[in-house]
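Q&A log
Question type: sequence-to-structure
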Amino acid sequence: MSEFKEMVLLIVGVLGNQANGLAILRKAEGQRGRAVHVSVMHPALYGLVKKGFLPSSLAEAPQDRGGKSKRVFTPSPPEGQALRGALDLHSGLFGQVPQMALAGGAS
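Response status: OK
Response body:
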């Protein structure tokens, strides 16, 4: 799984039931410190939905949106398992990096 998709899964977990496309996009921009384009976010979200990592549903259609529903993404057990696997992988590899490399010295 790509670093970007891992970040998206984490953001959905943080946002909980408020995890719609725009909220996820804004949070991703805040975390990355730069713009995230919808053309990158939507394929990532729907790819995660298709693989079963990220359930989604349509929220009620409020009148202030002209009756148009928002798609809400929901944290799920497969998402948690995928994130735990990524964390274990990163932690295991990080533990193998020589301290000298982490301090910025030559290895």
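Response note: The first strand starts at residue 56 and ends at 58.
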